[in-house]
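INFO  loader      accepted 1 record
INFO  loader      residues=294
INFO  predictor   begin
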Amino acid sequence: LGETGTGKELAARLLHDAGARPGGPFVAVNCAALSEQLLESELFGHEKGAFTGAHARRRGRIELAQGGTFFLDEVGELAPQLQAKLLRVLQERSFERVGGGQTVKVDVRWIAATNRDLPAMIREGAFREDLFHRLAVFPVVLPPLRERTHDLEPLAERLLAKACASLGRRPLGLDAGARQLLHRAQWTGNVRELANALERAAILADGDAVTAENLAIPGLSWAGGGPAVGMGDAASEPASAYTEGPPRLLSEVEREAIAAALRHFDGNRTRAAEALGIGVRTIYDKIKKYDLTE
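INFO  predictor   done
INFO  writer      dumping tokens
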């Protein structure tokens, strides 16, 4: 249980790795990402001819998790019909594929997550109470990042190391200014926002450590009445970097960020745009605007 971005899937993966089935598959499905019909097929699979476009048998995600862990994210978004089908799987450890009559036996470890108030949904008739009790055998609440200040720096170091490895660059540290900035930001997007900020900072960093300037990005909101950074869409109006020196023009920071991303990705504009969170058309326009063609 926890707000969006608090790291529920990360926690589920850690539970999988530390459990009795670390060698088995870890399969995740986000219930909010698909329509009811598509989600049913995704969860349970389907037989050939079950519906238009079902040209062959397809195993569902639950079946693919056999012998491992199945992570059901945003379970509060399940439609009533799928809640009933899921309850049966939990009770009987078996199901039928969509359009089929053959019973499939499954042996998986179940982990479910939500940012919804399921007891309130039960009172409103929107969520099955029996399914809730089946899922809530051992509830774990993940507090938002703003309430986990003691975890902030160790978590940031781990996420930064992961970002550096993903980008193929040497490990980076966090300088004193960046650490101070970590505690000033409110991180309303929780772990997800922190991870994205650190990945971008890893791209921008020139030395051996991420600085406050690297970390000050569009969208950050501040605690304690500090400077507000949330200034709209990153693609069109990035925030000025936080420094102890004089204020800088937004255009200067934007130009430096784009130039750094292009250097890191050897001029690959598509990858640079993805890393900066802007569109490819936008980065082409900015390259022309700031004369970054060389």
